[in-house]
Amino acid sequence: MAISSQISNQQNLKDWISFGIVLLIAFVFLKIYPSKTGSVIEYFWQYTMEMVLILPAVMLIMGLFSVYVSNNMIEKYLGKYAGIKGMFLSFFLGSLPTGPLYVAFPIASHLLEKGARVSNVIIFLSAWACLKIPQELMEFQFLGWKFMFLRLFFTVILVIIMAKIIEYFFEITDDRL
After folding, report:
1. Residue 43 falls inside a structural domain
2. Handedness of CA 13, 18, 21, 27 (dihedral sign)
3. Is the C or the N end of the chain the one with fewer CB within 10 Å?
4. Where are the alpha helices (DSSP H) in the chain?
């Protein structure tokens, strides 16, 4: 228990140091570019309000996910031995939602905690970011089927390659999030 507490305290310290560095950098840039202060404050306020409105729903969904989706289910469908079915499921699950990408990060964290394969979580996040079904339909409507399918094909291929490379580096370092 003491080791766990120490690790948690070290992580909290790192988080606060990172936060302090970001604030310091923001302060320096606002001193260099004082004319941007109004727009920075406006965007900060808009982003904060968006987070206040969205995060409670995300936390509720994460709580339900933690309780009702078992580790065995995640390991079976998205885990180490899920194979190509796990990849397809990750692409499918990531392409359904239309919310902002930062909503996907707590979900990805829970997937990792429940035994999902790193490459499947990377595929899920990448699909959330660039393979949304409504986006594909808009591409088809405005850019044509050829463009849509070529972009979709190359995106899928490159996402799979990227996910495998990232998973390889995770295995080398043996460092699970």
Report:
1. no
2. negative
3. N
4. 2-32, 37-68, 71-78, 83-95, 104-113, 118-130, 133-173
Mean pLDDT of 32-52: 88
Looking at the domain assignment, is residue 95 inside a domain?
Answer: yes
The total domain count for the chain is: 1
Q: Could you tell me the two tokens for 60?
A: 């509720």
Tens of pLDDT, residues 124-153: 999 999 988 888 888 999 999 999 999 999
Phi, psi (degrees; rounded to nearest 5) at 98: -120, 10
Residue 160 domain-assigned (yes or no): yes
Range of the domain at 83: 69-177
Residue 30, domain member (yes or no): no
Return all residues near 123 (Cβ < 8 A) that are at least 6 apart: 87, 90, 91, 94, 159, 160, 163
Predicted structure pTM score: 0.76
Whole-number Å distance between alpha carbons of 177 and 163:
15
